[in-house]
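Hello again,

I reread your note about wanting to compare the complex against the isolated chains. To keep things tidy I'm splitting this into two emails, and this first one only covers the full assembly. Below are the input lines as submitted, including protein chains and any nucleic acid or small-molecule components. They are followed by the predicted structure of everything together. The single-chain runs will come separately.
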Amino acid sequence: MEQVRRGRPRAFDANEALEQALVVFWEHGYEGASLALLTEAMGISRKSMYAAFGNKEELFLKVLQRYEAGPGAYVRQAVGAPTARAVARAYLEGAVRAGTQPGRPAGCLGVRAALSVGVTGQTVQDVMTSWRAESQAGLRDRFQRAVDEGDLPADADPDVIARYLTTVADGVSVQATGGASPAALQHVVEVALRHWPPA
Amino acid sequence: MEQVRRGRPRAFDANEALEQALVVFWEHGYEGASLALLTEAMGISRKSMYAAFGNKEELFLKVLQRYEAGPGAYVRQAVGAPTARAVARAYLEGAVRAGTQPGRPAGCLGVRAALSVGVTGQTVQDVMTSWRAESQAGLRDRFQRAVDEGDLPADADPDVIARYLTTVADGVSVQATGGASPAALQHVVEVALRHWPPA
DNA sequence: CGGATTCTGCACCGATCGGTGCGAAATCGA
DNA sequence: TCGATTTCGCACCGATCGGTGCAGAATCCG
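Full-complex prediction:
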């Protein structure tokens, strides 16, 4: 796996640079994050960035992977919860926590970036769309399993429940971006989960 | 009110031009809507646009007023509904309808534009923020009145209910932008309104 | 000590950004 | 008809966009 290093070694840590790029994309969206902003935050020159990550689009995709494994991990973790209700709670509370972390941009990178992509980033647009679709499908499948196992009533609609939860989570992200406090959003989550199953 | 027209008359209808600008801003957000896109859609030259509307920022603010009076009118109309529950239904169904109108960009101009504004449009950012705050305050006041009138239980929290509904509406807008169908979003609304009051 | 290879800094590319200067065209009151 | 006034089309402004050419610096293997 580890290649023999030849030539001049790079003078920066790729992971650290990706972390800084993540913050910039998170804060400004895909198109709003200019090369000047990105390279300044990453502490490297344009040329080093292109040599290490390809181009802006590939950099964003790598950042997206990093986000998925870090702040956005709650999505995958939620479906592992033991009951359908616990899944819903983990998912929504994860959205609140990820969207209101101190020292990090507010809201969800996925929501913020997806809504601000123009014609320039068609590939990015497609990736974000399929990513969101996958998350929702994951929830749907999990709730279908809950129906099969009797954890949810037989007449419950996994598709609608999944859609409802992702909608609330999206709203939480928008609210967080607008400056809503974690406490206020936690209240929203309590309301959304007060009655279960919701459908 | 009507001034005496002197000099060469303009060769376009200002309202029609604003309508086209609305679509472009709605589709591309504030910063994503370039002068080239805007003027092409409006069918006028850059110079005519600046003479008629000032600059890009003022144009957007005028477009925002137009949106508020048109597709976004459901927000003000909702609080006029006779009962708290009818207010909530009118608000959420209005968000679905406005966000999935055929022949128009998906989602809510407010949400789409607000999330994609960068450092360039600080004024626009502030306006959008206060606009969203006003909408939420309007709902909160309406629910407070409902509590006072006995339409909602005395222990209901108007602030939380308003926050919950705006969060769901924001989520509906995000989902609509992502291509969700009106029917799917209507199901979400039914789930959100199934139990009342929610808090 | 070579070359071979890789990374870095700087200057630069064409394209596009929001915004303007200028002169011609079109309408007014007189 | 004649200025005064306003709009219009075109070309252009400096700034910034994402991306690159090039020369030198730093490391490898031999």
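For quick reference: The mean pLDDT of chain A is 95.

B.
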